[in-house]
Amino acid sequence: MDRTEPPGGVAPPMAARNIEEVACLEQEAAARRSLADRVADLIAGFAGTVIFVLLHLLWFVVWATVNAGLVPGVPAFDPYPFQLLCMIVSMEGVLLSTFVLIKQNRMSARADERNQLGLQIGLLSEQEVTKVIQMLEGISAHLGIQREVVDAEARELGRHTAVRGLAEQLRERLPPESQ
Known about the structure:
Blueprint: H1 13-31, H2 35-47, H3 50-67, H4 83-143, H5 146-149, H6 152-157, H7 163-173
């Protein structure tokens, strides 16, 4: 079987189907977002850009220049130490941090959904592989070649995996800060 990558990086049919499934799941999740989530995503997304930073730098420079009396014909309305500017920037900071937290909470919930889906798929895969090993053991026994094919490791892998037991062992072995 040729395992080289196809020309042009085209995914094989199974991978293409998986990519399509994942894309559909992500589109469905995006469509389920509320209006508030969409607004928060837009604002938090824009706040994380260089354009946002440059606009703020321009705003601060213009504000300081006008209020330092350096622009002829334009009266200073917020003299140094620019208390009005400080208040506006503080309120903006509170609002921006709230939008970022809304976005992070939604992204965390989506990551939890993906982890649960991955866990379910992993458990199903483990069950399928266990069943295949059991079937191979049965075929080997029927053909009389069990000793050559089935070793202790194959017998161990052919047993049901106790997920709860594994989870408990993991909790016992991990340091408290990683749990």
